[in-house]
Design brief:
The chain has about 350 residues and is an alpha+beta fold. About 25% of the residues lie in helices and about 25% in strands. It contains 9 helices and 17 strands. Strand 6 (about 100-105) and strand 7 form a beta hairpin.
Length: about 350
């Protein structure tokens, strides 16, 4: 699998929370060679299922893998003085917006730039403050009459950013949170295609994680898996972030340790990583992880869950940066873990 090209296609696709159709089609194309069944549930989650070879007389077991495909973005809330005014969908950091290129998804896609008043006319006190929402606007170059024919309140706006290959296996772009996790699901399914595994695998590209874990909530309830793994991104080591709050780049995924992770899932993943010499880190999360794993864990009567984090710099910006090897290692770790699942482990979990 060409992981770099997959990340490029996923990164540059549109899929703001609640509007994931375009990116979902790309995910399906990537997973199609490795899955036995596909379906899109009523919420919009893409569920790719790979059946296991369950021994005769044994109960059919399943694992749910989750990576969210939605992205943060903007939505038009007003058109004022000929310029669209916007607010955020999913917690975008408005400090990073000034000067960004965007695409306004109106009746046709319009390129635009986010502008504000020039610094020369600002009061001295304003220099030290981020530009407030009401001072940001999008310039499409269209006069107001023409703009209103194409753009209306409620239209979505995505950041426009070309995928960039850096040195030493690093890449940069938008929406790696969490399309890097989705790419790791593809790596996992590709590896499982050459393995003998007994449990069914539901690889779910979830929707609306950024607005409240909605996709994972309904997918886990509907699938009712025996166990689950959520893959998201974690704060990669970078200037301004303490070592205690970050994970190292290019040293494999981090396994969350805390109440969102079942101790036996944690131990089994650590054992798998050690057995197959897959680099893996630890990430202490003493409360809610804020990931799909938080929703999976409490589905129905409870699901033993683990959370893996791919190291990522500059989260929730348009220049998110990761190392491709960490995506591959995450997918490989899940594949080796799944290949070793058996009824003895299910019994340990009390299933």
């Amino acid at each position: 699998m060409d992981i770099v090209n997959l990340l490029r296609n996923l990164s540059q696709a549109s899929g703001i929370s609640g509007y994931e159709t375009e990116v979902r089609d790309i995910v399906r194309q990537a997973l199609e060679p490795f899955a036995d069944e596909f379906r899109v549930d009523t919420m919009g989650n893409l569920i790719a299922t790979k059946r296991g070879r369950t021994p005769a007389g044994a109960p059919r077991r399943s694992i749910m893998l989750a990576g969210h495909m939605d992205e943060i973005g903007l939505i038009v809330k007003d058109i004022k003085d000929g310029y669209p005014r916007v607010t955020d969908v999913g917690g975008i950091d408005h400090r990073t917006l000034l000067g960004q290129e965007v695409i306004v998804h109106g009746k046709r896609k319009l390129p635009g730039v986010i502008g504000s008043r020039p610094p020369h006319v600002l009061a001295p006190s304003d220099y030290e403050k981020p530009v407030p929402w009401d001072m940001l606007f999008i310039d499409t170059g269209l006069p107001e009459e023409s703009l209103r024919e194409v753009v209306q309140v409620g239209d979505l706006v995505t950041l426009r950013r070309e995928f960039l290959e850096l040195s030493e296996g690093y890449v940069s772009g938008k929406t790696f949170d969490d399309r890097a996790g989705v790419a790791s699901l593809a790596v996992c399914l590709e590896m499982l295609a050459a393995m003998n595994h007994t449990w069914d695998v539901h690889a779910v590209s979830t929707i609306q994680e950024e607005t409240g874990l909605k996709g994972a909530t309904v997918a886990a309830f509907g699938l009712s898996p025996d166990i689950g793994i959520a893959v998201d991104v974690g704060f990669g080591a970078q200037p301004g972030v303490s070592p205690e709050e970050s994970i190292k780049m290019n040293e494999g995924p981090a396994m969350a340790i805390g109440p969102n992770v079942h101790p036996l899932m944690q131990a089994r993943l650590a054992e798998t990583a050690s057995k197959y010499e897959i680099p893996m880190q630890k990430e202490i999360i003493p409360g809610g992880s804020g990931t799909d794993g938080w929703a999976i864990q409490v589905a129905r009567c409870g699901v033993p869950t683990a959370v893996l984090s791919i190291p990522l710099r500059y989260m929730h910006t348009s220049v998110e940066t990761l190392n491709v090897k960490d995506v591959e290692r995450t997918g490989r770790l899940m594949a080796m873990f799944i290949s070793g699942l058996d009824e003895a482990f299910a019994s340990q979990l009390g299933l």
